[in-house]
Amino acid sequence: MKETSLKTAALTEEALRQALRALEAVAGPTVLLDGQGRLLALGAEARALLGPTSSPGQRFHEGFTGTEEELRTLLRSQREGLLSLGQPMRNGKLRLLRVRATALAEGNRSTGHAVHLAPCHVDPNSREETFQGLWTQDLRMRRLFRIIEKAARTEASVLVRGESGTGKELVANALHTLSARARGPFRAINCAALSPTLLESELFGHVRGAFTGAVRDSPGHFRLAQGGTLFLDEVAELPLELQAKLLRVLETRTVIPVGGREPVSVDVRIVAATHRALRREVEQGHFRADLMYRLRVVPIFLPSLRERPGDILPLAERFLAELNARGGRQVLRFSSRARRQLQEYAWPGNVRELRNVMEYAHVMGEGPTLTEAELPPEFNEQARPVRLPLAPESASASTGATRDIGIEDIRRALEQTRGNRARAATLLGISRVTLWRRLREAGGPSEH
Q: I need a surface site. Which of 51, 201, 256, 336 has the fewest CB within 10 A?
């Protein structure tokens, strides 16, 4: 009889382990509590989060810094809350967990709770900050915000350097919003997106009859930004001829429209941006040194997302919260493999790519847990983007040597991204327009 009871107990424990394994696959790290708040069982993922000191029979609140009453209040509310583990991590900091309870019952009688756990990636000992649309808990980024505030109080020209997707236009907007020009217009133009002829007209304006199709006068961005700020994105793409005209505008504070003769006074602050090193462009003869010095009075360097790894998961959680607020699917946590893949990914498209990836996963998946299977194809081990075998100077957008990228590099990037032009351009550190031009120059197909 005793032997039969032991076998029954063993079968019950095995069934409980299997049930917890299945529950964790759906809901993430989970523990089961009895009606008195004692641990009945822990899933493997929950045990890894809570540490080896947590074991069946222990009162759940003892593993945390809060009181038993605080935990009971959280369990009764069945809403998500935050708890700090009592056992500090190796660096001495307390680990913060997101906790959400589901009541268990037999008929009308409460029998305990299933408690779902998830790491909270915002460092409780580090100050997070939202600044003009940018969020971080990274100390270097917070210092950068103070530099932007100081630069905004002046009339100095600012050059923002950073990879695609790091938020260069948000910085330009912040410089405008925090400046004395905030009531004036903010105009932005991408110097890589237009042909030289059209770009000249867009910047400086044109008079009627200046060229075929010029049926009326056009003021151009400089005059439209009068009293405000003009943001010149990808300024390194400006042709040398237009660089000379831009320099003249900065020196004389006047513009001459295309086809016109009389200079027109302008009062505009310039904020320029590039993903390339202008000093290197000057050395290679692609950019005027005198214009660089005019634009680069205050240089601001935006770090890539992979240089601030502590921001990856908190930003992902923030983007998911925004998507949850729209209704429909409610994602409450990441699976452990999804977290690992998000942290290990190189993020060539930076914060912009992270936002897009979260939106993709939110749409493609189901249920409260975002899994690795819901991430885009490039996150799979076989299709994960890796650094292309480019020359050392052209392997990174930050070196400023994108003109060294050849057609074979582009073809390899297109193979890795399954023909996706936007992702291939991001991987190579060049604009989509530049990629299109290289393909056309090489005689390759410029359109799908």
A: 51
Torsion of Cα atoms, 261 then 262 then 264 then 270, to 10°:
40
Q: CB-based contacts of 149: which residues, under 8 Å, 6+ apart?
A: 178
Please write the tens of the pLDDT for every residue from 350-372: 999 999 999 999 999 888 889 89
Q: Which residue has the higher pLDDT, 175 or 193?
A: 175
* 8 A C-beta contact, residue 203 and residue 246: yes
Q: Specify the pTM.
A: 0.63
Same domain for 152 and 72? no
Q: How many CA atoms lie within 13 A of 375 on its CB side?
A: 21
Asked if 64 and 157 sit in the same domain, the reply is no
Shared domain for 326 and 404, answered yes or no, is yes
Residue closest to 376 by CA, chosen among 397, 348, 410? 348
Domain assignment of residue 171, yes or no: yes
CB 298 within 8 Å of CB 157: yes
- Full DSSP string of 240-273: HHHHHHHHHHHHHSEE--BT--S-EE---EEEEE
Range of the domain at 413: 306-441
The pLDDT value given to residue 104:
81
Q: What span, in angstroms and rounded, lies between the C-alpha atoms of 112 and 103?
A: 6
